[in-house]
Amino acid sequence: MSPTAQDNPAFAHPAFARIPPWVRQKLSLLAVDKIQAVYEWVENECIPREQIMKAQLEGSRWKTPKVMHELREKAKAKGLFNLFLPNHFKESPGLTNLEYSCCAEIMGRCYWAAQTMNCHAPETGNIELLAKYCNPAQKAKWLQPLLEGTASSAYSMTEPDVASSDATQIGIRITREGDQYVINGRKLYGNCLWNRDLSFYILMGCSDPNHPDKWSRHSTLIVPCSTPGITQVRNLTIMGYDHAPDGHGEYVYDNVRVPVENIILGEGRAFEIAQGRLGPGRIHHCMRLIGQCERAYELALLRCTDRRKTPRGKLIGEFDSNIERVAQMRLELDAMRLVVLNAADTMDLLGNKAGKRAIAQSKILVPVAACRIIDECMQMYGGQGLTQHTPLPEMWTYARFVRVADGPDAAHRHQVGREEMKTAEGFRERHEGYKERYRRFAEGYGEKYVSFD
C-alpha cells in the first residue's frame, strides 16, 4: 500500500468522499492533486455559471458562448486540459484510466463542465484516435490544435439509410480520383456545422464496396468543415432538446473532395480504427453519468427535507416509500461506480481489448440505471420535476441518449450474450464431472445412482 493511499490528508477533501478505499490506494500524487483541482473547478467555476451559459445562448443558439471560451482558457492555464488521455500516450497529462474516472465523475455534475477542460465527447475519442493512428504530419496539422483547444472536431459515422448499429452497412461512398477522395452520401449526428467553431469531421465511409472481406470495405478520412459540398439539412433534436451550440445534425455530402493525405492509416482500415476508438472513450459517458446522478440524488434529498413541502402534514422524506427510494438510489449509485471503476482498472492493467467485457458491462448497466435513478428523483419533485425549475429533465435526456450514443444497448447485450454462450461447453464438462463423481460416491456408499438425463 502506498503512503499516498494510507496517509494523504487530501483524502479528507470532499472530492474523495465517494472514492472506494481500493481506488485511493492506486492514486498517484498527481492524480490526487488533479481530482481535487477538478472538484474545486466544477463546484466553484462551472455550476454557479450554468444560468449564465443559458442566458448567453439565448438569441445566438449556434455560437459558443463567451463564458465557455473564457472558462476553457482558465482551465488550460490551471493544467486541467486533456486529463482523459491515458498515460501511455506521449501527449498525456499523466493519469491512468482509473484516475481519470474519478475526475470524470466530478465533471458530470455539470453537463458542460468536461468541455471547459477539453474532456468532452466527441473530442476525447477523436483525440485518442488521432494520437493512436495518425502519422506525424497529420498529428501536427489535426491533433495538436485539438490538444491546444484551438480547433474542434466531430465523428461522422451514423447514416439515415442503413442500420448503423451494423457498421458494415455504412454506405456513404468514398471514391479516389487522382490525388483526391470524393465523398457522396448522407450522414446523421456529428456536431452541428452551424457552429463555426467546428473545424473538421472524422468520417467513416465505404471505399471498396466489392471487397470480399466486408470488414475491409471502409476507410476513415479527415474532412474540414469548410470543404465545399457539405450541407447541413437540419439540427437533430434529442428528445426535444437542440443541445445548442454543438448539437447534432443531418448532412448531405455532394462531391466533397479532400486530399489523399487526409486518409487515416490507409484504405480499408476504418474498422481497425473504429475499434481502437471504442476503448476508454466508450465509458467516459458512464463516468460522467455517475456524477450527474449524484447531483440528481442530492436534489432529491433536498426535496425530501424541504419544510415548505409537507403533504398530509409530513415531509416528503418521512414517507416510507420515499425512504426506500432513497436507499435504493444510494445502493444503485454505488454499484454503478464500482462497475465503471472496475472497467477503468481492467483497461489499465490488461489493455482495452482484454477489458471489452468490463467496458460492455458499464455501457449496458450504467445508462439504464441512471435513467431509473433520475426518473425517481423527478417523481419526488412531482410536476415541478418535469419543468426547467430543476435540471432533472435535461439529465434524464442525456442518460437516455447515452443508451444509444455508442451503439444501442441491445447490440451490446447481444455481444455479451454471445460471448457468454461460448462458455457453456466448459460448464458442461464441469457438470458432467459432478455426475461422474456422484456415481462413484453412490457406489462407494452403496446407494442407488439416480440420473435425470
From TrEMBL:
<dbReference type="InterPro" id="IPR009075">
    <property type="entry name" value="AcylCo_DH/oxidase_C"/>
</dbReference>
<dbReference type="GO" id="GO:0050660">
    <property type="term" value="F:flavin adenine dinucleotide binding"/>
</dbReference>
<dbReference type="InterPro" id="IPR009100">
    <property type="entry name" value="AcylCoA_DH/oxidase_NM_dom_sf"/>
</dbReference>
<dbReference type="InterPro" id="IPR037069">
    <property type="entry name" value="AcylCoA_DH/ox_N_sf"/>
</dbReference>
<dbReference type="Pfam" id="PF02771">
    <property type="entry name" value="Acyl-CoA_dh_N"/>
</dbReference>
<feature type="domain" description="Acyl-CoA dehydrogenase/oxidase C-terminal">
    <location>
        <begin position="271"/>
        <end position="419"/>
    </location>
</feature>
<feature type="domain" description="Acyl-CoA dehydrogenase/oxidase N-terminal">
    <location>
        <begin position="37"/>
        <end position="149"/>
    </location>
</feature>
<dbReference type="InterPro" id="IPR013786">
    <property type="entry name" value="AcylCoA_DH/ox_N"/>
</dbReference>
<keyword id="KW-0560">Oxidoreductase</keyword>
<dbReference type="GO" id="GO:0003995">
    <property type="term" value="F:acyl-CoA dehydrogenase activity"/>
</dbReference>
<protein>
    <submittedName>
        <fullName>Acyl-CoA dehydrogenase family member 10</fullName>
    </submittedName>
</protein>
<dbReference type="InterPro" id="IPR050741">
    <property type="entry name" value="Acyl-CoA_dehydrogenase"/>
</dbReference>
<dbReference type="InterPro" id="IPR046373">
    <property type="entry name" value="Acyl-CoA_Oxase/DH_mid-dom_sf"/>
</dbReference>
<dbReference type="GO" id="GO:0033539">
    <property type="term" value="P:fatty acid beta-oxidation using acyl-CoA dehydrogenase"/>
</dbReference>
<keyword id="KW-0285">Flavoprotein</keyword>
<comment type="similarity">
    <text>Belongs to the acyl-CoA dehydrogenase family.</text>
</comment>
<dbReference type="Pfam" id="PF00441">
    <property type="entry name" value="Acyl-CoA_dh_1"/>
</dbReference>
<dbReference type="GO" id="GO:0005737">
    <property type="term" value="C:cytoplasm"/>
</dbReference>
<dbReference type="InterPro" id="IPR036250">
    <property type="entry name" value="AcylCo_DH-like_C"/>
</dbReference>
<keyword id="KW-0274">FAD</keyword>
